[in-house]
Design brief:
The chain is mostly helical. It has helices at about 5-30, 35-60.
Length: about 70
């Protein structure tokens, strides 16, 4: 069974939204600068979202370890 493309996209976006929040909070705690913290968070999470989507699609094609 595979996830639809839209399901994979929504999963990626919601996961990254939480990661973005964490990245921005940690960056702000270290830098004490909201602008830089947001920039770091957005850049980091944009790239990670793309790579997570690709990773998810690759694993959906691998049958190893699936039951049923």
């Amino acid at each position: 069974m595979m996830d639809s493309k839209i399901r994979s996209i929504i999963k990626s976006l919601t996961r990254r939204a939480f990661a973005l929040l964490i990245t921005v909070i940690i960056s702000f705690a270290i830098l004490d600068n909201w602008e830089t913290s947001l920039l770091i968070g957005v850049a980091s999470n944009l790239l990670k979202t793309i790579f997570y989507y690709v990773h998810e699609k690759v694993w959906n094609r691998i049958r190893w370890g699936r039951i049923g």
